[in-house]
Amino acid sequence: MNERATFGAELRRRRRAAGISLTELAARTHYSKGYLSKVETGLSAPKPALASLCEAELGVDGVLTPLLPAEPPRRRTRPDVRPSGLPPATSSFTGRTTELRAIRAALETDGGVCVVSGMGGVGKTALAVRCAHRLESGFADGCLFIDLRGHESGEPTTVHDRLLRLLGVPADRIPADPDDRAALYRSRLRGRSLLLVLDNAINAAQVRPLLPAEPKCRVLITSRSRLSALDDAEHVSLDMLPLAAAVDLFTTVTGVPGSAAVTRVVQRCGRLPLAIRIAAARFRAHPAWDVAELERRLDDESARLGELDDGERTLAAAFQLSVRQLSAAEARLFGLLTVHPGTDVDIQTASALSALSLRETDRLLDRLHEAHLITQPEPDRYGFHDLLHAFAAEFVLTDAEDEMKAFSRLTAFAVRSAAHADKELTPHRFVPEITFDPGLPEPARLDDSEMAMSWFRTEWPGLVALCRKAGERGEHERCWQLAFFLRDFFFVAKLWDPWLETHRWARASAEAIGDTWALATTTANLGVAFVDRGDLDEASECYGEALALFRRIGDGHGESTALAHSGWADHYRGKHHDALRDLRQARAFYLRDGNRRNAAITGRGIALALTALGRSAEAAEMAIETLSVFDELRLDLDAAMALNCAGWAWYHAGRHDLAASAYRAAADRAEACGSSYETARAYLGLGNVAAAEGSAALAADLWGRADEIHPDLDRVMVGEARARLP
């Protein structure tokens, strides 16, 4: 058996023993299936690069290479050498299959230039080196690898000198003149088939003079910047590792099996390859540690960057290289973005933080995104990788006074924006006078309640985090104001937990500054959250406190509001006569005061109390009366609630036709304004009507629809849920 057949036969035997098909091996090595088949059958000669790749993929280091056939000496037609300066490929490389294919496809195009970009530590160089090792054998004149040292001087004329030396040009024949040096470089590449890997490029200007004019050459570039100015290049943006690949990387380096704890460790590392490798190195260096100990050390966000340091590599140092490329204005904004406690910001919020114009802020954000220092989850929003956020907060945000002023501007803008959205949501709500500095940006444009709801749905997690941070940092007025303007959104969305949290923080802030009105109002709104969730005892306690506070400062409007809220709670507790008394007293005040909205809302409560007292026809009449006010004031959600109230009254009166009509209208109104709660309530009511008329199948269908829209409506708070048959 000759050498060539021996290599192919051994490759086939090892491949089958590993359970790997020829198609799978082709995908892993990036050689064609046909070529591999010819190698296995002895029809094509194997190459050293193929032997190395197959050994790595099959886990049989040193087995196939000795079987390579001896190559006959070739007489070269040129005096220069065939360079191969690639660094060794890491044996613990995982994932990136999609990216490897994208790079290969990019290098096969006519332009043949591919830029791999990503944040520091994401594994750009490791990916480029692995890809280059797999492709090197396809280039007759080999491969050149140059580290452009993105953090140091990388002038093209210096790089030309290094490249010419690698191409075999004697030092005394390298011209001193930069243009002559560039010309010699291009001439030495003429007619060559060569892969050029340019690692750690700073910008497009640094790379352009190094691009060969020879069409048979290909260029693979890595950079922390996107190098979007290289118009003719294909761009591959590198993100964090998928979770499974991140776990595989840690287990490959450490030898420990995958587990829930390992998964948490790589998540603490942000699925960033460099961070995972550093964590794995520290784990191996401490035999007394288990994975739980490593997880514990990485759990503290404020100390995590310090833990990701193995003595030779630090994640902070990798990030610092990227920051060094920023201008002073870019670095300042990068640091100030961490002042916001949320996960992402829009351009207006960033403008408020920086006190810069929207245009200038947009330009700086674009530069930070270009440098892979911030992410762009949506066209008008920017966010952080967790570890970069921690780095920027610790190492970039260094001006305490600038930070303090930025936070003050941020909270003021957040209150202004929330007030703007709340006005679209509830245009007739009483709002205290709040002043803002003239330099704040204008809030985002919101044309109607639907846009306001959409804005709140996007922003509320960040506003809640900001509300808490405002209280912690002594911005007490902004804390209670944020809670105040979030209340109606939380009511519509039924987000009870953040509603309760924000109002507890707001109460503490109102007490801290001695603002009795804010304390009374916040306490009453906290009671609304409790009663809406069905916690009636807590709600009554809040209403009692708020009522006393309003009476202390002589606020008749606030007193009536607290009295009305208390009436609602009494109704749900079964004290319908007490509820009717307090609600009527509050409604009389609102009517004298000309507050038609509050009078109508209180009238809706009166209708519910009347229904519970068996006065259903009177209740239905009151509900319809409130509906006309809500329609006139264009309060669509309140109108849907009034229709549900009328349907409930007519159902108890035995007027099933009128009840069904009211519930159908309520469902349409509630769906139109995005209230799943009131929509589900309407379908529950329709199901009850169907059941009362003996249509069991229709009732079950309507109840099922209600459960899909908003499951588990509280039986204490929703009469329709109590009336539903088991």
TrEMBL record:
<dbReference type="InterPro" id="IPR019734">
    <property type="entry name" value="TPR_rpt"/>
</dbReference>
<feature type="domain" description="HTH cro/C1-type">
    <location>
        <begin position="11"/>
        <end position="64"/>
    </location>
</feature>
<protein>
    <recommendedName>
        <fullName>HTH cro/C1-type domain-containing protein</fullName>
    </recommendedName>
</protein>
<dbReference type="InterPro" id="IPR002182">
    <property type="entry name" value="NB-ARC"/>
</dbReference>
<dbReference type="InterPro" id="IPR027417">
    <property type="entry name" value="P-loop_NTPase"/>
</dbReference>
<keyword id="KW-0802">TPR repeat</keyword>
<feature type="compositionally biased region" description="Basic and acidic residues">
    <location>
        <begin position="72"/>
        <end position="81"/>
    </location>
</feature>
<feature type="region of interest" description="Disordered">
    <location>
        <begin position="67"/>
        <end position="94"/>
    </location>
</feature>
<dbReference type="Pfam" id="PF13424">
    <property type="entry name" value="TPR_12"/>
</dbReference>
<dbReference type="Pfam" id="PF13560">
    <property type="entry name" value="HTH_31"/>
</dbReference>
<dbReference type="GO" id="GO:0003677">
    <property type="term" value="F:DNA binding"/>
</dbReference>
<dbReference type="Pfam" id="PF00931">
    <property type="entry name" value="NB-ARC"/>
</dbReference>
<feature type="repeat" description="TPR">
    <location>
        <begin position="520"/>
        <end position="553"/>
    </location>
</feature>
<dbReference type="InterPro" id="IPR010982">
    <property type="entry name" value="Lambda_DNA-bd_dom_sf"/>
</dbReference>
<dbReference type="InterPro" id="IPR001387">
    <property type="entry name" value="Cro/C1-type_HTH"/>
</dbReference>
<dbReference type="InterPro" id="IPR011990">
    <property type="entry name" value="TPR-like_helical_dom_sf"/>
</dbReference>
<dbReference type="GO" id="GO:0043531">
    <property type="term" value="F:ADP binding"/>
</dbReference>
